[in-house]
Amino acid sequence: MVTRRGLLFAGLAPLGAFPAQARGAGQASRPRFEPNWESIRTHRLPQWFDDAKFGIFIHWGLYSVPAWATPVGELGKVDWKVWFRNNPYAEWYLNTLRIPNSPTRKHHEATYGKDFDYLNFIPRFNEAIARWDPGAMAEIFRSAGARYVVLTTKHHDGFTLWPSKVANPNRRPDQQHAARDIVGELTRAVRARKMRMGLYYSGGLDWSFNPEPIETVEQVRSTILHTPEYARYADAHWRELIERYQPAILWNDIGYPEQGRLEEIIADYYNRFPEGLINDRFEIRKPGAPRRHHDFVTPEYKKMDDITDYKWETCRGLGFSFGYNQLEGPEHTLAEDALIHLLIDIVSKNGNLLLNVGPKADGSIPEIQLARLRALGDWLRVNGEAIYGTRPWKRAEGATADGLPVRFTRKGEVLYAILLGRPRQAEVTIRSLAVPAGSRISLLGGKQPLKFTQQGEDLTVALPEPLWQAHAYALRIAPGA
Q1: Nearest to residue 132, comparing CAs of 181, 200, 62?
Q2: Which stretches of the chain score pLDDT less than 50?
Q3: In Å, what is the CA distance from 414 to each residue of 73, 294, 339, 437, 443?
Q4: Element (H, E) at 353
Q5: How far is the first Cα of the chain from the last one, in angstroms, to the nearest whole number?
């Protein structure tokens, strides 16, 4: 069957080229995907994503102007009965504003007035983004050690960060999109620094089409838009994003309209970009819905208990919110050591970390978030060998004799045992870790091989003295010559 690429992407001008390494070799040997789920499900996870381990998520839009939410707690740790009225996600500002007597409504009316519409933030946002430097933003992400970036092109409020030619029928021409092509400018800057660029799109929720406020967890799914009008709109947006920006990841959120022609879009995308991939949030999670396809799953503010046999990517903010929330302070934000340990734990269990930053309206990243990114980047520059390009070992978790947690990764025949914290003694004993005779052990960041002894199933390693200060230490255990 013909994929109808010409019809899907007619009249759009592409932005640059998809990264050369994503095109692959052997054009004639590529599988050809047909526009049906059976064919699409034969797509395989590209190696680059499994190697990357760490990406940056960006939530940035009109909600970055008020930048306000009640920091009541982390997703999964707050009762759903109070979550939506007190939503800590600042990017849900418009929804929370629509709930009578919510803290956000009270704050909004006291700060901006009862008659100040959410879309009145557009001029303020456009004025702020005039000062944005996409190169400086991308450089922060590169320095933090990210291998890919995912930008919110349209969140649930329906405002787009690219100058779409697909008109929103429910908004005036001056209310459609940002004054700058944020998607295009950041895509260029990210690729110039050898990172991959993925694009987020809110496919299921769009509050410009459905203004009904969500006040319960059940209403999230019931307000997903399943109409022919919205399906055509969402389809056209995804087609436009793919053609113009050639994303390495299609990162959809909260379902997709049943009437959408998603099979055609995904098949054509894979045929053009076989090393592209899609997440699991295109799925329609309701009884009787057909099974679709995904390359990886996306738990939110969660991690796994053990190694999975499927690829996953956890997404979370540095604090309780994805969008910038001016009320969040250090007490709401992951500490440096907790962030580094989180990445290590995720990688040991076959996951990636998609760590969110919430820029201010002008694109600047708050200092508390910058400090965490700098700490993570510093650690990865020394210990990245134990993270990038690794795979899970036969088990993920271990411990030292004095109770310090240990995580394991591997690369070929090399095993990495990563200590989650600073050992209290000059020697460290890792329980239930037997290494082959003749193995060579070193500490990443050190210069000399380390002495070790095998005592039954336990491995004791003499650490360098003095041991430098770090939040985690990676032992490299290689087979003998």
Answers
A1: 181
A2: 1-26
A3: 40, 31, 25, 14, 13
A4: strand 351-357
A5: 54
Residues 136, 138: Cα–Cα separation, whole Å: 6
For residue 285, the model assigns a pLDDT of 74
Distance CA 355, CA 303 (A): 13
Angle between helices 367-383 and 336-348 (to 10 degrees): 50
| Tokens of residue 156, six digits | 């649930």
The residue ranges of DSSP E strands in 38-97, in sequence order, are: 54-58
Is the omega angle on the peptide bond into residue 330 within 30 degrees of 0, that is, cis?
Answer: no
Predicted structure pTM score? 0.94
pLDDT of residue 10: 33
Q: According to the 3-state scheme, what is the secondary structure of 286-308?
A: CCCCCCCCCCEECCECCCCCCCC
Type and span of the H or E element at 278: strand 277-278
Backbone phi, psi, residue 266, to 5°: -70, -45
CA distances from 157 to 141, 180, 286 (A): 26, 18, 24
Angle at 220 between CA 215 and CA 226, to 5 degrees: 130
Short-list 163, 156, 165, 161, CA closest to 182 = 161
Rounded to an integer, what distance in angstroms lies between the CA atom of residue 165 and that of residue 145? 35
What per-residue confidence (pLDDT) applies to 481? Answer: 65
pLDDT of amino acid 291: 79
Distance CA 38, CA 86 (A): 42
Scanning 193-328, the segments in alpha helix (DSSP H) are 217-222, 228-245, 262-272
Cα–Cα distances (Å) from 396 to 296, 383, 449, 459, in that order, read: 20, 17, 24, 17
* Pairing label, strands 54-58, 148-154: parallel
Question: CB of 353 within 8 A of CB of 146?
Answer: no
Residue pair 151/200 in contact (Cβ under 8 Å)? The answer is yes
Going along the chain from its start, the domains and CATH numbers come out as 5-386 (3.20.20.80), 391-478 (2.60.40.1180)
Give the pLDDT score at 318.
98
**CA–CA distance, 136 with 142 (Å, rounded to integer):** 10
